[in-house]
Amino acid sequence: MPWVLVPLLAALTACPDRTRTQKIIEPFAIVPGQPAVDSKAPSVDTDLRMDNGNFSVASPRQCDLFQQLSVRKVDILWVVDSSGSMAPKQARLAANFNGFISQLVNATIPIDFHIGVVTTDTDDPKTRGALRTWSLAPYSGDYIACTPQPTGGSLCNTAPSVDGGTTAAVLAFNQMALVGTQGSAQERGLLAAYLALTNPANVSTASSERFIRNDAALYVVVVSDEDDSSCNPLVSQPTCTADPGCRCATDQTLGGPNAFGSTAYFTRFFETYKGYGNGDLVALAAIVAKDDGADAGVPSQFGEPTQHVGCCKSLNGADCPHLGPNDGGFEVAYFGGRYLKVAAETGGVAVNICDSDFQNALASLGYAASGLRREFRLSRGPELRAMGGKATGVELYVSEAPRPCQVDTQCSMSQTCVNNVCACMTAAQCAPGDQCRAGRCVKALDVALASAPNGAQYVKCDGSALRNIVRFDGNAVPESLASVEVCYDVQANFSNSCP
């Protein structure tokens, strides 16, 4: 087949390979002598003339973004101390409860709420975990249920109509909250809440609505004049001599691994009660003694030999002593450190139980239960850079609730409809003085280091409880669904302890 090979060879000759190769030869020199390895540490050249006094560790930048809650339903569990010293505190609670309930009924968007009450006494297995009952003939129940009506007001299960419904609800609460003073002297408020929230009789099912609803937020309020002495319900430890019948350790160190029941356990229980990732739907508030400072000594109750700290309210005008027994002329409350710790870690608020009047405190608690958060906990410790009473190192931005849209023409200020929400591209598309950040028109607010009426304040500690929060007051509280962004440099040596 020579006639086939000839054309093939001709074709190969016509398409020569034009690839060029080059051998790279780098110059080198042979160094004389024997090879050796230097094993000493490398030296550092220093020149004090070049000292930089501004040198510091680089701090990472942190921005925490929150969205204000939009609660439409909330279940509120009150845990009331029933020990012998609580009578006057229970009376103040009942007398001022109207301020609490009015915040729920008169919220900008009225709240659908349930209210139940248990005591701190968990000694009796027949009653622990059970809600207290009320009776207003012909109605009765073991919790209050109020539903907002389209025409205004709330219809409650305590009355036949909207008119007088909340008044009857207050009367029903008074019956439940006046729990008496014959309960156990070992107040186990955290355990009592746990038992009530895990009692199947209190939890709604697909066929029956009960106190706890799956689609409602949860707000727990503890009222006690002594600290918590709960056991961790799921851990078996040696029996406490101070807490008979309870399986726990004898060490009562606040929040420690050998405490009555680690506060971390109860914090995790509350934060995960509505499912992982829904911690913002659950909070615990505490009406307890908040002061544990060096000058907070109080007289002991019922001849107790142990010296305590807390708060004292005089009944006869005399100054409260810091030592000795209570002769009956004072109301005394012992520091509620465990309750305060769980409240701080779940985003709840704290109220001093020795206050003469609970009116403002209960109104504040009602506001918190209505779903608008006043406090936003930072994820890291901020570098404050205090100047002129302000935390100049903390930048705070608050936006309005997002405006839904389908097309650009539904947005104001020439904003653009992005993912069905109006978004800004520049500050010119926002109100005068506002900024455009990540598509949101925001107002920049100063962060004060002390109480800021109608403003925002950074709070690291509340007594001995770590808070690390930005707290809003008055008309500065962000509206429902508003965005709150806090940016700051992380403090490298931030301490998690409080004095």
- Which architecture of the largest domain per CATH? 3-Layer(aba) Sandwich
What Rg is obtained from the alpha carbons, in whole angstroms? 32 Å
Compute the number of structural domains. Answer: 2
Number of H/I helices: 8
Low-confidence stretches: 233-259
Specify the CATH class of the largest domain.
Answer: Alpha Beta
Q: Largest sheet, described in full?
A: 7 strands, mixed
Helix content: 10-25%
Distance between the termini: 103 Å
Which homologous superfamily in CATH is the superfamily of the largest domain?
A: von Willebrand factor, type A domain
Order of strands in the sheet with most strands = 7-6-3-2-8-9-13
Descriptive key words:
499 residues; alpha+beta; Rossmann fold; 2 domains; 7-stranded mixed beta sheet; 5-stranded antiparallel beta sheet; 8 helices; 25 strands; 17% helix; globular
